[in-house]
Design brief:
The relative contact order is 0.13. Strands 2-3-1-4-5 form a 5-stranded parallel β-sheet, with helices on both faces. The protein contains 16 helices and 5 strands. The C terminus is likely disordered. With 346 residues, the protein is of the alpha/beta class. Helix 7 packs across helix 8 and helix 8 packs across helix 14. The termini are far apart.
């Protein structure tokens, strides 16, 4: 029986989420829009609009979405005024309001089923479930070393190898938790490497999970890239070319020996758990691994950071006092004690 359950595509950035979005959009019944920025924002700002059972409140929320450039509503090719009116006439829940926009996008292509794609959704699965309780999630996983290699080349990404490695670890851990919670009826996982090596076979299996018939057009996502990928996203240029295995294991030439060592030391167990072989790279410098751990779990290191801060303060103070006359030292004793208390208090 045909279904209209929402489809949510997630994954670590540079894992192939956009390619998968296009593959799904190429299906004759499914429309997945360019990446938007209004779903999570609307959820976090929902109290500003009051009771959404009131049409005027829904209208205010709709205006917030369609009028702000940062929401990327402008990439959907929809008429803003028509969208506002449809939202005002929608049911009085936030999920219905947001779903109305995606339904409009699907209708633009004459399709009955809609979805959405954004890597950040992987860390907000609970929010998506509150909005769309029957959603079907698809998580695409790519070799963490390839993700790191690709992310570090992006103009919009932080140029911090430690944070980049930590981002893949977090994606894997959050996906594992979501998979345990949702089960096979709402969570499906596939590897980028398997998808590009056998797109027809893997997409057939994916369609079975979605309850859809497979369509061979899905294996040629470049045919819809022009309408589903905004032109300003130059980092998605490869989506306009045929599916290829060319970038599989490209980390071997795109990462330095030190970066490979850090990736395998930090991500080793997660890589193996997802079916990726380790190269047996040298161990990273202890300072590199310590910096990664500091980045990946800053709260764990907070006591150490505070101790280091206190020690550094006292070292500077003692060095300063060692060069002051005795008469000045006597005057400073009380204030130094107070300063010590402030530092010890954090």
């Amino acid at each position: 029986m045909p279904t209209d359950r929402p489809i949510i595509v997630v994954g670590c950035p540079r894992s192939g989420t956009t390619m998968l979005q296009l593959m799904l959009h190429a299906h004759p019944r499914i429309a997945i829009p360019p990446e938007t920025r209004f779903v999570l924002a609307a959820y976090r700002e929902r109290q500003e609009f009051g009771d959404l059972r009131m049409p005027e409140n829904r209208r205010a929320l709709a205006r917030r979405i369609v009028d702000r450039q940062e929401t990327r509503f402008c990439d959907l090719g929809l008429d803003p005024e028509e969208t506002v009116e449809r939202i005002a006439a929608a049911q009085g829940t936030l999920g219905s309001v947001l779903g109305t926009i995606f339904q409009q996008y699907a209708a633009r292509f004459g399709k009955p089923r809609w979805g959405d794609k954004r890597p950040a959704y992987l860390h907000n699965v609970d929010i998506l479930l509150r909005l769309f309780p029957d959603a079907q999630f698809i998580n695409i996983v790519r070799d963490g070393r390839d993700c790191v290699a690709s992310l570090k080349e992006m103009s919009w990404h932080r140029k911090d190898i430690y944070a980049t490695v930590a981002a893949w670890a977090r994606a894997v851990d959050d996906a594992r938790r979501a998979a345990r919670k949702l089960g096979s009826s709402q969570w499906y996982e596939l590897r980028y490497e398997d998808l590009v090596a056998d797109p027809h076979g893997r997409l057939r299996e994916l369609c079975a999970y979605l309850g859809e018939d497979y369509d061979a057009a899905m294996a040629e996502p470049s045919t819809v890239a022009q309408v589903a990928v905004p032109s300003f996203k130059t980092w998605h240029a490869r989506t306009h070319t045929p599916v290829t295995t060319q970038r599989v294991q490209s980390w071997q030439s795109r990462l330095t020996a030190e970066e490979i060592a850090l990736c395998e030391a930090a991500l080793g167990s997660r890589l193996v758990a997802n079916g990726y072989e380790l190269s047996g790279a040298m161990r990273p410098a202890p300072s590199d691994f310590l910096r990664y751990q500091w980045t990946a779990a800053p709260q764990r290191w907070e006591p150490a950071r505070r101790s280091i801060s206190r020690a550094a303060f006292r070292l500077r103070r003692d060095s300063d006092l060692a060069h002051r006359p005795a008469s000045v030292l006597a005057q400073r004793t009380g204030s130094d004690t107070a300063a010590d208390r402030r530092v010890d208090a954090g």
